[in-house]
Here is the input.
Amino acid sequence: MKIALPTLCAVLVASGCTSTPTVGYGPNLEPIPGSITYGGQPRTKLTKAPVGSIVPHRFFDDFGRRVSETYVIDEDRSLRLISRRIDYDLPSDR
Here is the structure.
């Protein structure tokens, strides 16, 4: 019993670690449905936020995966997508 309990705990912990995030970075990162800039820039300009500010955005894609994106405000007040993380196998908290 002394060996069975730690083994069982280890199996349960390892089985809970099935989430495999996909992370994307770089200038060629394209928006996907649900992204702020999907279909073009937003109509309103971000006039109060300083240039270089980071804008986080979280949403669920068409497949129910949690997506976390990061944007930066450029000098022309447009948003530039700089990173994306997609979490697989996470329970939806919608």
Remarks:
- Residues 20-87 form one domain.
- Residues 2 and 62 are 46 Å apart (CA to CA).
